Amino acid sequence: GNGAQVPALVIGTGYGGAVAALRLAQAGVPVEMVEMGMTWDTPGSDGKIFPKVTAPDKRAYWLRTKTKAPVSNFFGFPIDSNIERYTGVLDAEEFAGITVYQGRGVGGGSLVNGGMAVTPKQSRFSSILPSVDAAEMYDTYYPRANAGLGVGAIDPTWFETAACYQYARVGRKHAQRSGFAWTFVPDVYDWNYMKAEQAGTVTRSALDGQVMYGNDHGKKSLVQTYLAQALATGRVNVSPLHKVTSVAPVSGGPGYTVTIDQINTTGDVVATKTVTAAKVFFAAGSVGTSKLLVKLKATGVLPNLNGEIGKGWGDNGNVMCGRANHMWDPTGELQSTIPCSGIDNWDAGGAFAEVAPLPTGIETYASLYLSITRTTRRAEFSWNASTGKVDLSWQTAWKQDSITMAKTIFDKINSKEGTIYRTDLFGGYKVWQDGLTYHPLGGAVLNKATDNYGRLAGYDGLYVIDGALIPGNTTVNPFVTITALAERNIDNILANDI
Ligand code: FDA
After folding, report:
1. Taking CB atoms and a 6 Å cutoff, what residues make up the pocket around ligand 1?
2. ipTM, two decimals
3. CB of 446 within 8 A of CB of 346?
4. d(CA 357, CA 339)
């Protein structure tokens, strides 16, 4: 409540925040978690908590009056629709050169993501976080993160016949015929539940078009894993619809005054509160944490933060494309929204491509792919005093690097199969969706803006523990790495600072 004093305050309830809260609470430290989004536990009038991808309503988007679907067109027709302004689960946050998709709500990105839980190859780890002991990560912290998240593998025998993965089998065939390495990708979705969905014995979620706007069933989001465990300690309190706006040193004393706006479901501020915290963990996600720190440094609230604040931001090289298959390669009317495979051309071409679903309910003969690429482009957040907002220096043209890398896979497949790119999915006859990322990373990079464990330079008791620590790229989907790094860092913080 207003005026409270707490030992530890965590900003945000995504991966970094959930790990911090659980491990602090297990060590006996009471934790206050502040989350700007809602708690997603109550069905709407349709009996569902979340809408499906093909029928977004107000629950789908964070404070927008029109949807902004990543696949914006279908057979050339725009599909975005008007919705009521609401504190919905997916934020399509627009910067000048890129739209950054992020989860909003208790559970953060785990509410909206595809659950693809990929541990990068150890040989590639030093390119991600060169100051981190890789052996320790792979011996201790990646296994701990995989266990805590409930990561599981698809049954490869079941995969061969499941109708809902026809699209993935077509993806495999085309990848292998062109000589590419194709791999299954682990996921936090409950694979037994997935089998039961296919068998028709449970209420469908992944097989009913739910993913990007949330899953009612099947997916183990943080709400079922780390956050459930954290709450079970009895030492963690979560305040949803509360947004942190400032973190200022208490004058003359230890600790920080945290200013928090309570909002309603149309985004209006209904109360402003302050809480005093001995330690503050920034876990608002790469963008959320960077925006707060950049503003607090530039406006003189935290002037001793160093010059690395806001730097090293990247998009994990995300680009999307679709291919048009021949009539003898249908991808299926029934498609699981949870991807289960990828094409690995990282070493030769700098691209790892997820074989993604296009869950429209009808046969489209389309193969959709989200590629993660080895781009070296990095942008910077900066405070814009005239607008009172934080800008990001990303330029849309920088995506050309990623397109070139993704083309090392898909130009070859198209030429082998005698197929073409789809031009009807992203508007304006575009082949490449080059205007977005699902994987924002960086802005308060480990061992630069912080020490090697996330302690912010310049201020005792301030920590970064989310995707902002990772400099722009993880070579694969990022949340396992974010979780494992948070596990590593909180171990060190508990041993030395608490
Ligand atoms: P995360 O973004 O999870 O959490 C931050 C939280 O802080 C949010 O809940 C936010 O509302 C809150 N917050 C922000 N500012 C605040 C403030 N000022 N006050 C209070 N609260 C605040 N990754 C992957 O590995 N596999 C996958 O399959 C996918 N798929 C995918 C699909 C889609 C559609 C998206 C959008 C993203 C993915 N991702 C993914 C990415 C993954 O979800 C992402 O990398 C992590 O959620 C990032 O974790 P963090 O802990 O950094 O922040």
Report:
1. 11-16, 34-37, 101-104, 108-109, 112-116, 212, 243-244, 283-286, 288, 292, 438-439, 466-467, 477-479, 482
2. 1.00
3. no
4. 7
